[in-house]
Design brief:
heterodimer, A: 158 residues, mainly alpha, two-stranded antiparallel ribbon, 8 helices, 2 strands, 3% strand, globular, B: 549 residues, mainly beta, Immunoglobulin-like, Collagenase (Catalytic Domain), 5-stranded mixed sheet, 6 helices, 32 strands, 12% helix
Chain lengths: 158, 549
């Protein structure tokens, strides 16, 4: 089982102490999960996460329900919105396209989190998937991924 | 030592000539006996023209492939052999008084099979002379296929010496690159460390994007097209520019619209109107059928297929370089990152090693602004690669520089002499036994070939035309010329080059080096069948009910 990471531990401690936890420290999932989320042509990345077993479920649940960590969304948003350096002009993609690319980014995290949860299986993974199903995501690939993962867990949602 | 079994005629020919009482050369003059062979088995090449360069002396080879040149003044000569259908070949010899000097020449076919034209077969030789603080030093030569360093060795290019030059030996296989020096003015400056100012003119990479209707309705396809046009393609271009690759994917300013560079089309089967699963499928297992289907594939361009749920969701995109088709790319329409497209193009341009090119230290593709979002990914610690664009520019602009990262340090080289153009696309070689094998064999003394760069057929030979009666079938054989180190299985794959219900081609048998295909036709007409082997194929015209010319 993974030890709590310092950032999360600090945030939880501050929260329990009744303190304002700001400034929020960037909290990233374990590197193995992050690699599975980000790999372009994946090989053993998913297996590596599945090997974590139940220890990965909490992080995967968070990624499924909340999407990628805000710090990463911010990083990607900055990269996408950065004016392109055409020789005689700058170009910024239209806002709807920026939103679409960001939603692609979020959805991909949710899809891959679902796939890993389905492969891990067990009650906690199934509960995480059910929580995701209850959110009625707009993106169909997310809905399909959750449904497929639920089949893998062999269970249904209440 | 050459096996006599490889030259069965030699055992017969030499004694026969001796017994025939061939005249001995005069004591003060010399002679050449030029033996010319061709083809895989080294068959005698009859009627080849053999002449001495710069001298009014010539002869034709006889039925045994032999031409005798007698009464020659001792000294150095260049023997030049020509025969229609084969590359002109030169050989330097020295004629000695009172001696008949044997010259053996194995002709290469000048038929070079068409292949993926962009980067997979771009064969470059780097004869590096690097700049140092005190002058320059000779660096090990390199053989590069695409951007893969296939071999590094001492002074492999013995004839060239250490000149600091790059040669692209297969420009015929990279026709889609702009090859006009005027397109690359930014490389012309002294001390130019490749594209420092990033002007508008760049290496133009032609791309066709095929939007599949698989799992996408019309609205989704329209949305994807807009996303590509308004965001993904300009962003990919920007990433290339940001990383100094000198590669232009598509013009991102209206004043420089280049519709011939980028082409977005929707993939549908012309018969069913649906996704042509039989031809495209959803992964690289379908490379052969994709290439055999012109309506969904343009061999002279990168072909990017956008569809969903590729590889069961375990990839945002992937390049079929491992299947010998680096210009075939699949990208997940919904799940791809904004940099997936340039990432896969990076593989297509030759970034395949180490770790499948997932390196941050590849010159031209390193995004040092945000390592986690590096175009080519993370993980590698050293690279010895450079971009095809750099080599192309070096080829077309002699004053340009080539930067190569070796073990983390950068070396620079520039072309100092006129580029060598090898005729017919065949290797220049002193060796007589390296043809028609794969071109890695041009690497000679002092070089160790770590591995064959493309363990597949070099080219495929099949009959150019077959005549078939309607309602019948016929078979043909194809032979695959390949590297001795090749380990590829599955040499042959026959495909009909069009959607037609009237013609069918199936592979009957295959074995290393050859395969047999059967063609059956149901009705009249003319068609074409291709026999694939690795990255090459041969076209066979099928004439139904009429004779071949």
């Amino acid at each position: 089982m993974n030890a709590p990471r310092p950032g999360r531990l600090l945030a939880m401690t501050l929260l329990l102490a009744g303190c304002d936890p700001a400034p929020v420290l960037p909290v990233l999932p374990p590197a193995r999960i992050l690699r599975w989320m980000q790999c372009q042509e994946c090989r053993s990345e998913k297996d590596s996460v599945v090997a974590m077993g139940a220890g990965a479920v909490l992080d995967l649940r968070t990624l499924l329900l909340d999407g990628p960590p805000p710090v990463l969304v911010s990083l990607v948003a900055n990269e996408i919105q950065k004016p392109m350096q055409a020789p005689n002009a700058t170009y910024v993609p239209p806002a709807p396209q920026i939103d679409l690319l960001l939603e692609d980014f979020r959805s991909n995290y949710r899809v891959r989190a679902s796939m890993a949860l389905g492969a891990i299986g067990g009650d906690s993974a199934r509960h995480a998937l059910c929580a995701g199903k209850a959110m009625n995501f707009q993106r169909q690939e997310v809905v399909k991924a959750i449904a497929s993962a639920l089949v893998l867990t062999g269970g249904t949602c209440p | 030592m050459r096996s006599s079994a490889r030259f069965p005629y030699a055992r017969v020919l030499v004694p026969a000539l001796f017994l025939a009482g061939c005249p001995a050369p005069s004591p003060t003059m010399g002679a050449l006996k030029v033996t010319v062979v061709q083809g895989e088995a080294g068959d005698p090449a009859q009627a080849a023209t053999v002449r001495l360069v710069g001298k009014p002396i010539a002869a034709s080879t006889n039925v045994g492939g032999v031409a005798d040149l007698t009464n020659l003044v001792p000294g150095p000569y260049t023997v030049r052999v020509g025969l229609i259908g084969f590359c002109q070949t030169d050989r330097d010899v020295v004629v000695t008084a009172g001696v008949v000097t044997d010259v053996f020449i194995w002709l290469c076919s000048d038929i070079v099979a068409p292949t993926n034209p962009v980067a997979d077969r771009l064969l470059a030789l780097l004869d590096l002379r690097i700049e140092t603080a005190t002058g320059s030093e000779c660096e090990n030569d390199r053989l590069v296929v695409g951007k893969r360093t296939a071999a590094v060795g001492g002074n492999a290019l013995a004839l060239a010496g250490c000149r600091g030059a790059a040669w692209i030996l297969s420009p015929d296989q990279a026709p889609a690159f702009s090859n006009v020096a005027a397109d690359f003015p930014w490389t012309a400056g002294a001390g130019d460390s490749y594209a420092p100012t990033l002007p508008a003119q760049r290496l133009r990479v032609p791309v066709t994007i095929w939007i599949s209707d698989r799992d996408m309705d019309a609205a989704a396809r329209t949305a994807l097209r807009a996303k590509l046009t308004d965001a993904l393609l300009p962003k990919a271009n920007d990433l290339f520019r940001e990383n100094l690759s000198g590669i232009q994917l598509v013009a991102d300013e209206a004043a420089e619209a280049l519709p011939e560079i980028i082409d977005v089309v929707t993939v549908v089967d012309p018969v069913t109107g649906d996704h042509p699963f039989a031809q495209i499928g959803s992964n690289c297992d379908f490379v052969a059928s994709i290439r055999a289907t012109p309506v969904i594939y343009k061999p002279e361009r990168f072909n990017l297929y956008y569809l969903n749920n590729i590889l069961d969701g375990s990839a945002k995109g992937y390049n079929c370089v491992a299947q010998g088709a680096p210009n075939i790319i699949f990208i997940d329409a919904d799940g791809a990152d904004y940099f997936t497209l340039p990432h896969e193009l990076g593989h297509g341009l030759g970034l395949t090693l180490p770790d499948w090119g997932h390196s941050e230290q590849v010159p031209g593709f390193w995004n040092d602004a945000s390592g986690a979002l590096s175009i080519m990914g993370r993980g590698a610690t050293a690279a010895t690669y450079f971009s095809v664009g750099q080599v192309v520019r070096m080829q077309v602009e002699p004053s340009s520089w080539l930067n190569v990262s070796v073990g983390g340090s950068s070396i620079r080289s520039r072309q100092t002499t006129a580029p060598l153009v090898t005729p017919c696309g065949c290797p220049e070689s002193e060796s007589t036994d390296d043809c028609p094998k794969l071109r890695t064999d041009i690497v000679r003394t002092g070089t160790q070939v770590a591995s064959a760069p493309f363990p597949m057929a070099c080219y495929v030979k099949a009959p150019p035309c077959l005549s078939v009666l309607p309602g019948s079938s016929t078979s043909f054989d194809a032979k695959f010329y390949t590297s001795p180190a090749a380990t590829t299985t599955g040499y042959g794959e026959a495909s009909v080059v069009s959607f037609t219900p009237l013609m069918k081609a199936t592979l009957q048998s295959e074995s290393p080096g050859q395969a047999t295909a059967e063609v059956s036709v149901a009705g009249p007409g003319t068609g074409e069948v291709r026999m694939y082997g690795g990255g090459a194929f041969a076209s066979v015209v099928i004439r139904v009910g009429s004779a071949c010319p």
